[in-house]
Amino acid sequence: MPLAYSAAAFGQLAAACAEGSDAPAFDFIQPNSLDQVTVAAGYRTRPLISWGDPITGDAPPFDVHAQSPAAQAKQFGYNSDFLALLPLPDDRSAVSDRALLWNNHEFLNPELMFPNYDPEAPTREQVDIGLLAQGASIVEIRLANGRWLPVRNSRFNRRITGQTLMNIRGPAAGDPRLRTAEDPTGTVARGTFYNCGGGVTPWGTVLTDEEDVHTCFGNRPAGGANDAVHHRYGIRTDASDYRWEQYHDRFDVTKSPNDVFTTGYVVEVDPYDPDSTPTKHTALGRLRHEASTVVLAADRRVVVYCGDDGRFEYVYRYVSTNPYDSSSRTANQTLLDDGVLSVARYGDDGSGEWIPLVAGHGPLADWSGADVAINTRGAADLVGATPMDRPEDIDVNPINSRIYAAFTNNIDRTEEQVDAANPRAPNDHGHVIEMTPGGGDHASPTFTWEILFLGGDPRNPSHAAFYAGIDSEDVTPLANPDNLLFDQQGTLYVCTDGQPVTLGSNDGLFAVPVSGPDRGRARQLLSVPVGAELASGCFSPDGRWFFGSAQHPGEGSTFESPSSTYPDGPGNPPRPGVFTVSKVDGGLIGA
Ligand code: FEO
Ligand code: CA
Ligand code: CA
Ligand code: CA
Fold first, then answer.
1. Cα separation of 173 and 53, whole Å?
2. What CA–CA distance (Å, rounded) separates 559 from 117?
3. In terms of DSSP bridges, do strands 545-551 and 577-583 run parallel, antiparallel, or are they unpaired?
4. What ligand 1 atom has the least distance to the C-alpha of 290?
5. What is the pTM of this model?
6. How much distance in Å is there from the Cα of 381 to the middle of ligand 2?
7. Which chain residues have CB less than 5 Å from ligand 3, an ion?
């Protein structure tokens, strides 16, 4: 197993780069509404793997008219989100021409997945396909003849789904609220859902974030001991989005009051052991989890930055009790069991504070550790955290070690609720905040912050857009930042989710320099197909490939009349999936 993963993946980027950055150089694209992945001149793109593609064992080829739970369990899942490239264990020095691809499968568009779908009365088969289309995929990929392709039947290929059994660890493990009909011990959960953001640990495991799990559960009884918590988390008293409760009691909160408490966590998976049992880490809190970006503090404790994607929700940080030990992968897999979760307060003067959520102290004097882990939002409400405009991804720049947090929008913020960190009401276009940890240490109790950009079109005064002081005509407008990543030069790349509504053009990938005279000068490198968001992206370690998740192409239309037929073309259903981008001359992306 890759004990050297940390040095390989974490050190490589930083070591390759010097402080300071040049603005990326490419013939940026214009906003468009094309049903394709559109890339800058000199670049090319190809689909890599899409919903339904066979990945394990004797998986059948995809046939949208003959889809079945048995097939879906062995095929690539739906609605690609967080992705990561991991080195193969026998070639850990780098991702060169072989890699493991991790991809989250966030949610479902059953109206695009199934002919004649009735949202109020789905069939048992549709429900079970949906359960198996969520979760994540691990697929070995290889580069040959200038093209990455999935490796069928690799021993690493694996589906993790809404049916996969998982261990529960941390402060809430074993709590009576987590004891279910299937597991009276409260230490086992069935399935992972709405896997949106994620992260990779220095010990080579993947963290996958359960986001909008509240939409999976229905029939919450009014009143009762847990009513206030359920209300705070948006658990419904009526039917769920996908009506899973019609066939599976665990999604019916009246019949099964505790299964809902086994969801909403960060899940750790060992991608190198296909038989490993994933772990739900309650120490990182129960949220609509977004981002689990891992860095090391100065003393080598493990720091994980997390967001909670809801209007007026908070930004969180976990710091492990014990330090990372590069010689013990087994010990490292306990680092997320015990630590301190804090929540961010953004002062109007640009100062910032991490407020620890410690049971038994201050406003949490009457709380147990399990209470904080299960009702994390309620705990954060009590300590003076700053309600933000839907925290999405949070990432750390490998060059300047600053933290960048995306806030995608908040249509509910009023003028009375405006503050320096959330300065627009409503906030239709979202923004990115740059945070500098106190003393450069990610475990510091303080930080400073400033706004890097406020999304929207600077030529439209009603947007009140701001791009770090760059003149409006020199910016390609972007809106609704969601996922963030960095290239080797420390340039921020922003994946967007929502531009068809807010700017009238497809979502895509924007380069935003964070230093030098071009700081804030947004330029668009690519766009995704009609209806899709660019849900996640990553660069290969050599900087020559970009991998992107085209999520929900065709959203807003139906199977019978789809607005997108990406990637297969007319006559085919839209299929979310992962695509690659490279330069035709083989050079560095953005250079
Ligand atoms: Fe799944 Fe918050 O985007
Ligand atoms: Ca989003
Ligand atoms: Ca997201
Ligand atoms: Ca990211």
1. 36
2. 8
3. antiparallel
4. 2
5. 0.96
6. 23
7. 196, 392, 482
DSSP string, 246-300: GT-GGGBTTT-SSGGGG-SSEEEE-TT-TTPPPEEEGGG-SSSEEEEEEEE-TT-
Q: Residue of the nearest CA to atom 1 in ligand 1?
A: 196
Give bridge partners of residue 295 from the DSSP assignment: 303
- Portion of the chain with pLDDT greater than 70, in percent: 95
Which atom of ligand 1 lies closest to the CA of 408?
2
Residues lining ligand 1, CB < 6 A?
106, 196, 211, 290, 309, 392, 482
Q: Strands of 577-583's sheet, edge to edge?
A: 43-50, 577-583, 545-551, 533-539
Over 90: is that where the pLDDT of 386 sits? yes
The per-residue pLDDT for 93 is 58
Residue 391 corresponds to which tokens in the numbers above?
């925290």
H/E/C letters for each residue in 441-507?
Answer: CCCCCEEEEEEEEECECCCCHHHCCEECCCCHHHCCCECCEEEEEECCCCCEEEEECCHHHHCCCCC
Tell me which H or E stretch contains 339.
Answer: strand 339-346
Neighbours of 61 (CB within 10 A): 10
CA 196 to each of CA 79, 288, 297, 337, 380: distance values in angstroms, whole numbers, following the listed order: 9, 9, 25, 21, 22
CATH 2.120.10.30 fits 3-211+264-583, yes or no: yes
